[in-house]
Amino acid sequence: MATTETNTDTSTAVETATIATGSATLRPVDEFVVPQGVKQKRKSPWGIFREMPLLVKIGTIWLFFVLFAAVYAQLDARVFNGSLPLADPNLQLNGFNAATGEFGTGTALEPPSWERPLGTDALARDTFSRAMHGAYVSVTVALVSVVCGVVIGGLLGSLVGFVRGKTETVSMAMIDVLLAFPALVLLLALISIFEVRDLFVISLVIGLLSIPAYTRVSRANSLAISNREFVLAAQAIGTKKWTILRREIIPNVLPTLLAYAMVAAAAVVVVEGSLSFLGLSVQLPTSSWGNMINQARRDIKVNFGQILYPSLILTFTVLALNQVGDFFQRRSAFRGSSL
Amino acid sequence: MRQRRVVTALAIPLVLAFVAASCGSDDSSSDTDTGGDTTEATTETETDDDTETDTTEAASAPEEVVTSVAEETESAVFGGSITIGLESEATGLRPWEDSCSSPCYHVMRSIYDPLMEQIGEGGYGPFLAESLESNEDFTVWTMTLRPDVTFHNGTPLTAQTIADMFPLQQAGAAGSSVIASANLVGVAAIDELTVEYTLDAPTVAFPATLASGPVGFPFDPAAAAADSAGYSTNPIGTGPFVMSSRDIDNETIVERNPDYWNVDANGDQLPYLDSISFRPIPDEGTRLDALLSGTTNAMMSLRQGTIRDARGASGIELIEFQGNNTGGGMYNTSIPPFDDVRVRSGLSRMNDQERVIEALGGTGISLPTTQWFSADNVWWTQEAADAYQSFDFEAGKALLQEYIDDPARSDGKAPGEKIDVELSCPPDPTLIAAMQVIEQVWTGSEQVNVTLTQFDQATHINNAVSDTHRAHCWRWGSEGDPSASINPFVAPSADSVANFPNFDDPEMLAWALEASATDDFERRKELYSNIMVRINEQAITWYSGGTAVMIAHEPGIRGFNSWTLPDGTLGVGIAPEAQARWFQVFISE
Amino acid sequence: MAKTVAFVLLRLIATLFAVTFLTFLMVALLPGDPVDTILGTGPRAPGIEEQIREDLNLDDPFFVRYFAWLGDAVTGDLGTSYITDQPVADTIQSRLPVTAQLAFMSIFIAVVIAIPVGVLGAYKQGKWADTVTSSAAQVALSIPNFIFGIFLIWLFAVQLNWLPASNWNRFSEGVLDNLKTSILPAMSLALAQMALFSRLVRSDMIATLRENYILSARAKGLSDRYILFRHALRPSSLSLMTIVGIAFGGLLGGTVIVESLFAVPGLGFSLIAAINGRDILVIQGITVFIAAMFVIINTVVDLLYAVLDPRIRRK
Asked: C132: how many CB neighbours lie within 10 A of its CB?
């Protein structure tokens, strides 16, 4: 959005950091502006985990489970050639088996059972296995966008928030232009340009589109930090700008930016789900949660479960990312304010 | 919705392939599918209330139908309105310009009348025309128009009108294509009601051209020339209904034409209905729900899965039809490895039709096909069926292995390496399901690396047009005269966009040309059969099942299947592709 | 103040310019030849391809085409669809009311629910009511709108058969008929907005409740309800207003997936259809329009904020 920032940054209304979400989430940047102070003692991951409220704990566990599913499914497919205990996600259980020359005995739209925890889809494929493999798509897209966002957006934002001047005006104007587009539209058009729709291209395009939002968040944080005594002091004694950026700005921008990254990743997972739902993400037979939902729509009257499971999985994952992201945001806000 | 500009009938019904998600295929010409199959897959009406007035099996038993039509007419009731759910919005309503698919023809046929109309057994009878005669070699056709027909704006329809339409049709995206494939070069008004069409090559199937929207639907050329874009939303025809309001992508309403020329068997002025509301509802499930919940009174579908769901629903009646339109795909033979018949045959041998149909949701609805005609059609031949390379895994494997081991294999890979195959379909869930069934078997052979791709419809079609496709989902056949779909398909690929597989065979071309120059039915059948046999032997295309279509409606709506030409001949019902002719549809008590 | 306004306007124009250029560039990069889009797969009369290329100036250099288009666009002429021959501006004009109505309705629903929920959360901060509403908001924020939409269709249209699953009745066809078709898509869109607004109201309110004048109002013995809605809500309404403005701008482009799910004939629905049909000028026109609206609305919100917030005005 265009903001009226000349030098009075307070005149900005609520800056938002939408990621290519269409309408998924629209969160004020303010929530993620937390000036960090001096270096603090780090807590161990376990310590942080114990600090979490119950729901956030569950969310964290869920996210680890999703991560595990993605890694396990990929290991099974690429390293162990399907020898790990997990059904082949693309095997049609009622289909022609080239090895035996016979048709399989499975059926389409089976209800859940011990053997097939989430039943089978309309092509008699194991839904549990497809969901596991679908996790890989979501995890990849989320990670790539976080990396793009934190590395490029984070650096750019920290830099312009600290250096200011023309660099800032020009960069932020460009960022504003990118943020002016209906994000899903921009995404659809960009993906059509590439023609080939593999996970790599999808992740990269979504990743690139995430950069503006990260830039805004990190710039806002960088601005706040740049005005703090320890930065002003460092400047006064003639420390090099680059050194200040590296030593003072970036380390203090990072914690809030990472909290934001969780929330942004949630939005990205929704975006990928939407694209998949429209049939415009990864190519089948590769499964993703969105295309599972789309494919199950046809049979919604016959079998509600097949559309329900991937919907729940997608929603839980987004919820968990939001929960955990908010937890870290609150945590750093608390520490920031206690300085 | 608005994807193609393609067109028609004569022109290219082979088009639309599997491409049809929201566009069906485009063709306006059709011949009749004669039912008579033992399965449920043919024209048939399931009635919950089992009324005798419904024209069950209309097309399959013409004699019976005539009686039932008589009954219908007696019981016909004037008045009432219908809302029908269509699978997509009409791109535009200018027959000479806009590409029109099945849902679009629903609307157009309420506004416009055709010069000729389809009857059973692939024939055509006069509608707005009174007669149509040709010279010896089928290069000059003389048509006499019905007198006293006026357009909605009061302008009379004369021979000069038809002649004045021609330049617009030649320049129109839809018209130019049909004119080119019909070899039409000149239209002249001989007197008040006589029109002479001049062709530059013998074309037996010319009547089909005059049944097609782009050339056969008269419009007011003066009004069209004055404001072409405006004509798209305010079309003026001679048809039974007049455009009342058009809210694109939402609702189009037409109202009874009080001055319509056509009368029913009792001599009462048609149409029966007061108005029709067309609602585009792209989602198949939603469209059916809209009918079941009473939001609409009728719906159309070209999807087997929807027909399956509709059969399971209560409180509605179905008119089903499966004609000369089959799903499947093709290989681009200009690109290795598809230039080698062993690869094409091998892959086609691994196309498990039954399972593909099951994945499409069409088991018990759609029948496996072996050629561009359904098994009950007059053009269907046993020779072509015998030549089709049906599912035989081991045979396919052997063929592929032969290619793989060939040191001179065309794709330039080393002997022993797997073959790379790219299979592409539009991103429609059912098509993709079907595609995955094929992929499963191909991959299972362990001889092929399969890449599946999906592009939106526009890109999918453009890939075929620009010859960048590989193995490509497509739809074959048409209800029209076979020349409509077959001739452009076998024309030299350098000249004909519609020769999608780029397979040039002088002999096939010669057969097609001969078939256009004779009206000896047996000979023509033999020639087209030869072409089908050759296509099957060369494995240029593969097939899944026939395209089943339906109109589902609330009980009590009649006339979709029992309409007649002005001379009383029974028409083709809802062929092709569930297109309704509205002038004799009525709501019984 | 005048200087700020001038700066803002200048910047607005520059942004709009950049937006049009990027859109044009992006659309120009789309694969596929417009001529194939127009002519489809039928046989082609000789010379017709060249004719079309000439008529549409397709062979002109990129910048010539861009500035020609931009020149027309400034006067409100966004070109004519290659496929339907209808002016793109007309399409937008007939679609905008639908999308705008959905955006208004969903924001209305969201605000009406969010304010009491947010106030309750702030008032009962830390208590179970707060925990429940906050958690519910968190969940609501996490449900993708297309999933919620599918659920609504399943529940209200398929299971209960109360509302149509699709269709759109225009406002002119009667308010009740219109409501029947608009309520489900509006609800799908409202869910996330509602959660967002209620969180905002809650956190603003918590901050306000700590302010001195609230404490003194309490000391004066005013009722809690009076304090909450008369005193405490007012400062929060400013930030709520800005985020509602931004959300509205965002919704104009954010209804794409819900519109295509419910077959609502709005801007997003046309856009998806145009993308699928490669209807280049429609893609271009709608994208630019949505982006321009978004930028303009945000600028207005910014200016309003500057005018209304006394702290900023003083500066």
From this structure: 14
Question: Measured between beta carbons, which residues in chain B are less than 8 angstroms from residue C85?
Answer: 92, 97, 228-229, 232
Q: B27: closest CA among B323, B424, B338, B272?
A: B323
Q: Do B458 and C40 touch (CB under 8 A)?
A: no
CB contact under 8 A, B439 and A285: yes
Using DSSP, state whether A274 is helix, strand or coil.
helix
Neighboring chains of C (3 or more beta-carbon pairs < 8 A): A, B
Write phi, then psi, for B72 (nearest 5 degrees): -55, -50
Kindly state whether A189 is in contact with chain C, defined as any CB-CB distance less than 8 angstroms.
yes
Residues from chain C contacting residue A4 (CB–CB below 8 Å): 4, 7-8, 302-303, 306
Testing the interface with A: which of B391, B401, B453 to mutate, by most A Cβ within 10 A? B453
Is the preceding omega at residue B235 within 30 degrees of 0, hence cis? no
**Does A122 contact B at CB distance below 8 Å?**
yes
Classified as helix, coil or strand, C115 is helix
Q: Contact, B584 vs B565, CB < 8 A?
A: no
Which residues on chain C are in Cβ contact (under 8 Å) with A173?
11, 14-15, 18
| CB atoms C30 and A1 under 8 Å | no
What is the reported pTM? 0.78
| Residue in chain B nearest A88 by alpha carbon | B440
**Choosing among B431, B432, B442, which should be mutated to test the A contact, i.e. which has the most A CBs within 10 A?**
B432
Q: Is B177 on the interface with C (CB under 8 A)?
A: yes
Rounded distance, CA B301 to CA B306, Å?
Answer: 7
Rounded to whole angstroms, how far apart are CA atoms A185 and C30? 13
**Are B492 and B509 a contacting pair, CB within 8 Å?**
yes
Angle at B20 between CA B16 and CA B21, to 5 degrees: 165
How many H-runs (helices) and E-runs (strands) does chain B carry? 19, 19
- Least CB–CB distance from C144: residue in A4, A24, A173: A24
Cα dihedral across residues A283, A286, A287, A292: positive or negative: positive
In chain B, what residues touch C91 (CB-CB under 8 Å)? Answer: 248
Question: Tokens 């390379």 — which residue?
Answer: B389
Interface predicted TM-score of the whole assembly (ipTM), two decimals: 0.82
Those residues whose C-beta lies under 8 Å from the C-beta of residue C286, and which sit 6 or more positions away, are C88, C91, C92, C95, C267, C270, C271, C274
B253-292 residues touching C, CB cutoff 8 A: 279-283, 285-287, 289-290, 292
Quickly tell me which residue has 């990269």 as its tokens: A204
Instruction: Determine if the peptide bond prior to B576 is cis (ω within 30°).
Output: yes
Compute, in degrees rounded to 10, the torsion defined by CA atoms A172, A175, A180, A186. Answer: 170
With vertex at residue A134, the alpha carbon angle to CA A293 and CA A75, rounded to the nearest 5 degrees, is 160
Beta bridge partners, B126, equal B116
Q: In a structure prediction context, what are the per-residue pLDDT tens digits for chain B, which is 589 residues long?
A: 333 332 223 333 333 333 333 333 333 333 333 333 333 333 333 333 333 333 333 333 333 323 333 344 557 888 899 999 998 888 889 999 888 888 889 999 999 999 999 887 778 899 999 999 999 889 999 999 999 999 999 999 999 999 999 999 988 888 888 888 888 999 999 999 999 999 998 888 899 889 988 899 999 999 999 988 889 889 999 999 999 999 888 889 999 999 999 988 888 888 999 999 998 888 787 788 888 878 889 999 988 888 888 888 888 999 988 877 888 899 999 988 999 999 999 999 999 888 888 888 777 788 889 998 888 888 899 999 999 998 888 899 899 999 999 998 898 888 889 999 999 888 777 787 788 888 888 888 889 988 888 776 767 777 887 788 889 988 887 777 888 888 888 888 877 778 888 999 999 999 998 988 888 889 999 999 999 999 999 999 999 888 888 999 998 898 888 888 998 888 888 887 888 899 989 998 6
